[in-house]
Amino acid sequence: MPRPHRRLASTCIGTVTAGLLATGAALAAPDDDQPQTPPDTAMGAYLDYGRRGVARIPFLSSWLGGREIRVGHTYLPGDRWAGIEGGVGFLEDWAEWRQAKQGRMFVLNVPMQERNEGRVPDGQVARLIRAGADGEYDHHFRRLAERLVQLGVPDTVIVLGWEMNGVTYTHRCAPDPDRWKAYWRRIVNTMRSVPGQEFSFDFAPNRGQDAIGWTRCYPGDDVVDIIGMDSYDQGPGRTFDDMITQPYGLQHQVDFAKAHGKRVSYPEWGLFRRGDNPEYVRRMLQWIDEQKPVYHTITDYCPHGVWQCKQNPKSAWAFRKRLMPEVPGPVVPTPVVPTPVVPTPVVPTPVVPTPVVPTPVVPTPAVPTPQIPLPGIPVPKPSQAVPSPQVPAPVSPLPAEPTPVPVEPSRAPVEPAPVPVGPSPENPAPEPAPVPSPSASPHRPSPVPSPVVPKPQPQPSPPPRPQRPSPVNSTQWCVPINVGEWLSKLVGKQSVCITLNWGADSGFWPW
After folding, report:
1. What CATH number has the domain bearing residue 144?
2. I need a labelling partner for 204 at 20 to 30 A (CA). Which of 149, 163, 222, 467 fits?
3. pLDDT: is 39 or 251 the higher one?
4. Is residue 186 part of a domain?
5. Domains contained in the chain, number
6. What's the pLDDT score for residue 367?
7. What is the mean pLDDT of the chain?
8. Range of the domain at 456
């Protein structure tokens, strides 16, 4: 849209750069509304065609809060073929900037005809187009390709014959669209024939139909790498939505590029007919974010610009606010304080032996059941031989008065005489001895009752203590008492003795 001579004439505004920087510094600080432009979309601006344009790039980056300006954009003068061939000094400055950092992009607008802004009539334009299609101008474009390769920028993006669907430039398409496409193809093939080249060719019409629908000028997928569009804030269309939906508008460009397997670009965009219009700036940046173009560059001089043009402060605010990168707060590194590893001493747990306290075995005393004898004189156990008292048989009196001769008791046990079973004729039973009366004498012994023999107990008893046998014919008869082992230990061995008075005065003896 804007004419190249206006771009070249605009270089005089470089003297006010410092003032514009100061103005930009007073603009609003960034907020949360940050740009969403993907990292593979390169951003730039046209700041000036020559060395001053290169010098202004870092200042624009500073104004945008340090945002990287990856695209350097300039134009070759189209007044003479010498300029189109690259015979200008400022290409060295742009080549040096491009080579200074990896990832930068150099975009160069190249006219297709000399006297490009000379308002050449359509008939003459048609003749020039036919001459180009016939190869008359091939050598000019070969020299340009060799120049760029020599400068070390063989990957330059060539915006060839921009805005060809309009009425402004001598390289316009409408006077002869078919031959124009053939001319485009010839230029591209000529430049690609130069060894070492890696050029990309950007087909960039003006938004809208203008003099001719730009699709009629499309030269073919084999000679086009990018489908761009220049879109300023002007008609056709009154709103930004109109710019999107109109024939040959922004949406048409995106759809056409997708159908041909190409990516889009926006080499020129900016304010124009509607003055300071921040809404257009916001919507255009939003559209760029959504479409993810290869690159975009705003035309930054008056009346189109936002940084070098004081007459658009609201738009400058919107542009800066949207493109400033989000600056996170200072990251204060948390000092990593190493935790000292204090070795835990291994304290052996003392093994305290548990004393084995023997459980005292308290013997349960066996308390024998005391044998309580029945009344009467207890009789020793059947195993003991209890001697029976020997009753001497009466001796018949001799004619003389006999004196009873005491029989000395023998120390040896005497077998008792056999007791006759009963009387017989040979042994008549003797007459019973007279039984003394109990009242005859207080010293007479009581008749000896028959001993009651207790039932033998099952428990064992200690062996009987040998008893000293009573002497034969002794007057004393002792019978041991068995009261059990346990009670015997307490009271000792006990016995019951009976004394029988066998003397003459006892009245027992009949003589």
Report:
1. 3.20.20.80
2. 149
3. 251
4. yes
5. 2
6. 56
7. 77
8. 446-511
